[in-house]
Amino acid sequence: MEENILGTEKTGKLFIQYVIPSVIAMVITGMQTIIDGIFVGNFIGEAGLASINISQPFMQIVIGICLVMSIGGLSFLGRSLGEGKTEEAQDIFKTIYIFLSITLLLISIIGITFSPKIATLLGANEELLLYAQTYIRIISFFPLIIGSIFLFGFTSRILGKPELYLKATLASIVVNVTLNYIFLAILKTGIGGAAFATGIAHTVSLYFVIKPVLDKNSQVNLFKGRFVAKYIVPVMYNGSSEGVTSVATATSTFIFNLAFMEIAGTSGVAAFTAISYLSLFGGFLIFGIADGIGSIISYNFGNEQHNRVIDIMKLSLLSSSIIGIILFAILSAFAQPLVEIFADNTDVVNLAVGGAKIYAFAFLLSGFNVITGGYFTAIGDAKSSIIISASRGLIFILIGITVLPTFLGVNGVWATVPCAELLTAIFAVYILKNKNQLVLSNKAINHPELS
Description:
- This protein is 81% helix and 0% strand.
- By secondary structure, the chain is mostly helical.
């Protein structure tokens, strides 16, 4: 059998080969929502823009489930193939695919049937309800497609074909921009058109990433393997930090929406939405690095090539730190023109620009936290990864949003995320030192086993 490049290629070249396509693909994936925001903000207005952000917790739940199963399984897939257990890897893939498909179909049914109730539950007021429920109902037709893209795209990296996910996302962005312009600017279809444009764009991208798993000669494909129920819990546990991240994002978005609605009304939510999009773009740059190194780390950890894992981690932390500094500088210096991409309302722009200069500090430490959490997931230390994800995405957010606005008003809301990143970084350093994780040893890691 041909050797997998994950265990043989020079780490520097491997880092570039995997991380750059992953970063580009992740950013483009995130751009789907940002593009919706640009078109909706300019062709529908602040109510439409705010309603998309109201709908985001629902989509974060969908994405969270996809990430739990895909990334949780990716770690086991990489280690199984690295250990030469091809049949086990095939069973893992088949189990994830079947379980994920059933779960996402159920979510689609719920979203389509109960979209008004979901929108109301997420905080939509009378002004935003129709927009939000329309977006939720239409996007609910596509969770299975989205889940398949995640699973097949991540699997293609393990199979040594990281470029396929990039091709898929490039095709997706072209389709999304084109359809958003047609639906919103020309046909005036409203927010439903934005949702359809995103869904159709995802469908097109599936064509690219499905190819390897349809090849019967691939180490892992849709035709080999069997459903093994006992694999589900270990996979979910190992990927649970990604689920915690998505649930935390959904929860914090909901909380921020409520806070801004109370302090500044619809304009406040629209301002937060604009900053969320800018943060989303920056976050996906960093998440792209963590995503790209996952298969490299898991494979080499399974193959006991620990020096290669250390080299990849050093490159990742350096790269994410540089990106964080650049993002901080850009958002601090060019907040107003960036915000004006999404909104032209003076109140919204002024509120968002002031908030951006505070929020920008979050980028200085978010890279360290994301890379560290992704590393723990890749080696199977789900507990440490969950602690980091929950700390930065939920626990310190809840504490900050409760305490800081009392003393700082609306600036306290903006300062919540930077404070959460700072406290999480302190925790992450403690965990690394306590477990001596940078000096890797299989004996030092208590990761879940499949059986």
